[in-house]
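Posting for a labmate who doesn't have an account.
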Amino acid sequence: MKNIRVAHSPDADDIFMYSAINLGWVGSDILQFSSKADDIETLNQAALRGEFDATAISFALYPFIVKDYALLRTAVSFGNGYGPKLIKKKHTTLKPNFKVALSGQYTTNALLFKIAYPKARIVYKNFLDIENAVLSGEVDAGVLIHESILSFSDELCVEREIWDIWCELRGDDSLPLPLGGMALRRSLPLSDAIECESVLTKAVQIAHDNKKILSSMLLERKLVRVDDTSLQKYLGLYANAESISMSDLQLRAVDRLFEIGYENGVYSNLIKSQPNLIPTEYLNSRNS
């Protein structure tokens, strides 16, 4: 069978959504899957180099890899009233040129942050190191992502929600915040691409349908960095029913993110999500 190299982040939602494949709960007659976990910006950079067949990405990266990767509908994470947080030490005031730690150049939070704070001095760090960088005074502020948004030092406070920046820029007040998605290499045969998306979608569906037992297994095997209470809260935010397959509303949100980037000179071309999805209707027409 053809091996598909899949990359995902080590945060709880990605591990949860992919675990059904690792555990053998879902599989394929024509494809086998191997996986690697790494922080999201490392995966963004790897996608620019075309290293993996299927990979988790920040949605903000996608216009840079559109020629080499199609966009998958599944294993997506959106914010809806929540998202990454800009934090600082309590009782401090940020100057216009404050020094800030972001989790990566191509992350969605970085795209929105740069538009909102054009004078900020940015350094990039692994998302696990950002809180300590603020506490130590190495930077004036930092944007927390993943599980870090659930719990951080009492010495810190939220300066601004990235969600609020999104709301100011998006226009349409119904659109959720596109954070993480999945991309698939275009060089794969179309039948393999369709099968790959189908298997990944089933994995996310099965994980969602068996949330309680799968969560217990991840905690027992120490595959996640949080306790049960935080895990359930985090999965409710980022690995839920809306992660299984993107809706029309979510696709509109992704398109609006691309428009915002284009309008602010981040992207040289304006692209749309729909033409870059895997054309699953191909199998229906072939088998009819």
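Reply:
Got it, the structure tokens are right above this. The mean pLDDT is 92.
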